[in-house]
Specification:
A hairpin with a 2-residue loop joins strand 24 and strand 25. The strands form 5 sheets. Strands 13, 16, 18, 19, 20, 22, 24 and 25 form an 8-stranded antiparallel sheet that branches. This protein has a 6-stranded antiparallel sheet with strand order 2-1-3-5-9-8. The protein has 2 domains: 127 residues, Immunoglobulin-like (Sandwich); 166 residues, Glucose Permease (Domain IIA), CATH 2.70.70. The chain starts with a strand and ends in a 12-residue tail after the last strand. It is mainly β.
Length: 309
């Protein structure tokens, strides 16, 4: 296990003293004696773990922090590829969900972690997540002239900022139960991460999955959560965002109608709207995303089994 290790650090943060200690197998006795031999004033600062410790672009992993015994934590912060990781306390551990961008380079990538204790001290370290290779296919899209006005950079920036404002806060506890489900029945016509060109110009990687279905097809909640956005956006059309807690959100775009309001609690398989062709589209379908904070991840991964934190 690449990142399963104890950290030994000083109470005084200004002393850059720490060591890695193996905690299983034949090194367990060495670990015990090393702890006994520590000079006065040194403590186990934190146990850091990534689960799993290697992922493909567009996938998720858990950052697990077990603070030193008998020390109260005020806050845990982390970042990967410049994106912050939100942490939530669970029993004596702090856990955060992290995501790797679909366009991330294949290499070992640092995860920067800092633990702030209530006594005013702090501990920081770096662990590494491996990024495995994944090839995303290319897709060329022809968009009619009646829709190209929606490609205006200023409009895109404004809509992105509006969307991100609804992804800034999440319920601290996971609201989902079991594996997620596909929100409607249909054919997956454009998979997550596809490298897209619109009218010959680079557009970006696809942030979700497009499920082909007729206008009016019921769109169901992929899991339980709370509605945090239910309105019409210019690019995304009629849009719903579900907060599933723990910084996990689902997004439904291009709906023909919306059947929920902000603040509604929804259960898995509950109808929240109907598929359509509103916004920047070439035809009727449901665009479905799952995001960790603002970072889109492959939604189909979430249907393969429950994420247990």
């Amino acid at each position: 296990m690449r990142n399963n290790r104890l950290r030994i650090g000083a109470r005084n943060d200004g002393v850059p003293h720490h060591a890695d200690i193996a905690v299983n197998g034949r090194f367990s006795v060495l670990c015990l004696w090393t702890l006994i031999a520590l000079p006065m004033g040194l403590v186990i600062a934190a146990d850091l773990q990534l689960i799993p410790d290697a992922v493909e672009p567009g996938e998720r992993f858990v950052v697990r922090v077990v603070p030193a015994a008998n020390r109260d934590v005020a806050e845990v912060r982390a970042s990967v590829l410049g994106n912050p990781v939100k942490f939530y306390p669970r029993a004596h551990t702090w856990k955060g969900l992290a995501a790797i961008n679909a366009g991330a380079q294949v290499k070992d990538t640092p995860v920067y972690v800092k633990v702030f204790y209530k006594d005013g001290t702090s501990f920081q370290d770096i662990v590494t997540v491996g990024i495995r290779p994944k090839r995303f296919p290319t897709q060329n899209i022809r968009m009619s002239s009646s829709k190209t006005g929606l490609m205006d950079p200023g409009l895109l920036r404004q809509e992105r900022e509006q969307l991100y404002s609804h992804l800034a806060n999440s319920q601290p506890e996971p609201l989902w139960n079991g594996a997620f489900i596909a929100p409607c029945t249909g054919r997956n016509v454009s998979s997550f991460g596809r490298r897209r060109y619109v009218n010959g110009a680079w557009w970006g990687q696809h942030s979700g999955a497009d499920i082909a279905c007729a206008t009016g097809t019921p769109a169901k909640a992929d899991n339980a959560g709370i509605i945090v956005l239910a309105e019409t956006l210019q690019m995304r059309g009629n849009t719903i965002v579900i907060d599933h807690g723990f910084n996990v959100f689902s997004l439904y775009n291009h709906l023909s109608s919306i059947h929920v309001e902000i603040g509604d609690s929804v259960q898995k398989e509950e109808v929240v709207g109907k598929a359509g062709a509103t916004g920047f589209v070439t035809g009727p379908h449901l665009h479905w995303e799952i995001r960790i904070g603002t970072i889109p991840v492959n939604p189909w991964t979430w249907t393969q089994g429950e994420l247990v934190l």
